[in-house]
Structures are given as structure tokens and as C-alpha cells.
Amino acid sequence: MGTPRLVLGHSNALGEHPLYDLLAQCPLSLQPIDASDPLPDELALVLLDERLLALRPLADWLDCGAILVGCMDQPGVLPLPPHASVEELAALLRFAGEQYSLRHQTEQLAAALAGKHDDLSKLVDVGLALSAERDLDRLLEKILIEGRRLSNSDAASLFLVSRRPDAPAQLIFKLTQNGTLSQNSFQDQRMPLSKASIAGYVALTSTELNIEDVYAIAADAPYRFNRSLDLQMGYRTMSILAIPMRNHRHEVVGVLEFINRQRKGSEQLEPELIAFDEETAVSLRALASQAAVAIENRQLLDDISRLFDGFVQASVFAIEQRDPTTSGHSFRVAELCLTLANQLPHAPEARLREQALSVDGLRELRYAALLHDFGKVGVREHVLVKAKKLPEPVLENLRYRVALAQENLHNQTLRKMLHAYRHQGGLSDERRLQLEAELAYECERLERYLSNIIQANEPSMLSEGDFQ
User: Are residues 169 and 266 in the same domain?
Assistant: First the structure.
């Protein structure tokens, strides 16, 4: 944003102007203006006279962006005194040049401010989009897409840092995008976390690297660029901006690499590659900070989901341990429920299709199906694991009561026979057979009752049981 070269536009009749000799001695470039030519871009001052006003109206000159000077009394025109000295004229022209320079700087600052406002709006939109994304893979993809858009980069890569207590730290090459090369299926690549690579150095030192040409890295640098992918794909990596992604504890959770920044407006077939400037780096640092928070939040939510899923699995295991006879029942119920729910969108009736469940709804249905027998945990053991409806002591007591009732019937029959011998002079064969038949009928009826109770006590399907 330096002071532009002071160029004075004038008509072809400048030599006839009374100030020509003075202007020729001033520190500025003189450039004639012709009616058929467009006004030059570097024009700072215009010596306005009657001939130039005849070429274009005053309103056009006021809109050209240059400072207007002249020996006339017109609004917007800086008047030149006709009898000024060279020093006075030079001071006046320098003042006009400074005014133009200030106007030029103001326009550049306004344009930069508008660009900053646009970048800020984009970052706000990116932050909202990242916070709303629930799928980790789509979240990482969106981070690279938005970062490439903010920086106008041809390619980008994302690395995550994996730290576990039971294993050495690793750097996971999670995702890459390239606008020049066709994207094939990409699989995660794990590598030891060391300073030998650019991403590893950034992750371990928590410092940013802005490299203009990765093929020209200094020999004493602790990191190197791996050219194998370039050689394999026929690509030329030039500039790289590697930024650490830090969480709220200032721990590096990942690294963003933006590759080959392109000049905006350059030809698409052969875009001009430029280095990453500080203005672009500021926007990408803000993106990296937002990305770190979004990634950590997503990982925490995934951990909570896995923890709850583990709780459900442990609960099902506890249920089955209390009632081993129903082992696998909860999982079969969950599978059948999900199978039926997944058919709702394809149902022939509209009212059923309208009941189709979302992904969250299907997850809740699965949990509900797995835990539908959770109440068994609080049921007393002897009730929960009983094989039949009546406990064995109760059934044994019932058998004893039936046997006692049959014995009482025998005693009653014998008392009737004895009463006949004592008080009726004897017992006829017909009467004896009648009493024995009644005894046999009552005993057989008790046996039938007991048999029916024992049969009903056996476990059976509803369609097979004789519950009447």
C-alpha cells in the first residue's frame, strides 16, 4: 500500500498552457490524454482544461478517481494559481498527490476490511456447520473442504494424534483431498509420531510451519518431505502450511496441512501457485481451533455412546446370567424389531411409511429391545429360575393332601360297612359292591384332579396347554 507513482494527465495542448514551463520542472510524469484512449490506471492527477472538458463532461472526470487540478473555478477541481512559483506549484502538486495516495490507501483498506468481514462471516458459518455435524468422517471432510475454500488451496490433508496409555503415540493420516488428482478410496494410515515428518514435527512441537517450497527444505531442518506420493501420482507439491489443532487444554489433537495455494483468478488449466501469506494463515488458524474443538466434542460424544452401549451389553449379560434359560433372547428380540422397523419405509400403506424411524429412533428401539427384560434383575431368584409354575415342595404337599383325602374316603367306607354289620344284621353283597364302587369313583376323581394339576404345572406353549 505504498504511494503510487505521480502521473499527471493533460491534453495535447499542454505546451500552450501558461503553466507548462512550471509543470515541466515539477517531480511528476506527464501523460497526454486522447479522446479515443481509456484513462490509464496509474493516473493520479489530471490537469483539467477546456479541451479535456470538451472530450468528457466534468461528471466523468470526477468519477475517474484522480485528483483534478486546473485554472478554473469548478466544484471538485483544485485550483492552480496562474502566477505561482515553481516551489509553490510543486508543493501544491505534492499535496494533490498525497491526497490521491490517501484516497488510494483508504480504498485498499476498505477492500481489505470487506475481505476480513467476508472471511469472518465464512468462519462463523464454518463453526456453525462443524458444531452441527454429528458424523466424525463427514466432519473431517468438511474441515478440509472449508479450509481449502478459505485459502484457495489445491490440496489438503488431515492428521489425528492417537495417544493411549498402553501403546506409543501414533500419527494417523486420516484424510486427504486434491483438486488436481482424482480421489481414489483412501484408508487410514498409521505411523509413529516423530519429528522426521512435517506433520509429526508440528504435532510434537505444537509449532506452525509455512514452507514456500517443500523440495527446498534446508538440510539442517529436523523434518523432511516425503516425495513418494508425488512420484507415484505425478504431482508437484510446492507450498505447505501445516497448522496444529489444539484443544482447550492446549494439547495437539491433530494437524492440518494445506498444499499449493493458488492465486485467485488465475487460469484453471495452469493455476499460479503462491506461498501462504499471514492473512491466510490467520483464517486457517481460526479454522484449526474450531476444528480441534469440534473433533474433540465429536470424540467425546462417541465415547459416551460407546460407554452407554457397553452399559447396555453388560445389562443384557447380567439378565442372561440371572436366567440362563433365555440366553440370546434379548438379542433376537432386538434383531427382529430392527428388521421390522427397517421395512417401514417400504410398507404398502402410507400410514405405515409415515411411521418410519430415523437413525436415532432406530438406535433407541434397539436399546429398548435389548433392555425389555431388565426387570428380571430385581426379581427374586426362586421366582425367576423356577422351571414349573408350582415349586416342588408345594406340589409334594398337594400329593400328600390327595393321598390323605383318599385315605379318609377309605375310612368312611369301612365305617359304613362296620355300621351295617353292627346295626343292620349284616352287609349284603349288593350293598358292599355299591360302597366299593362309590369309593373307587371318589378316589379316581381325586387322582384325575391331581393329574390335571401336574399337567398344568408343566411348562408349555399357550397353544399346547389345556388351560380350561
Answer: yes
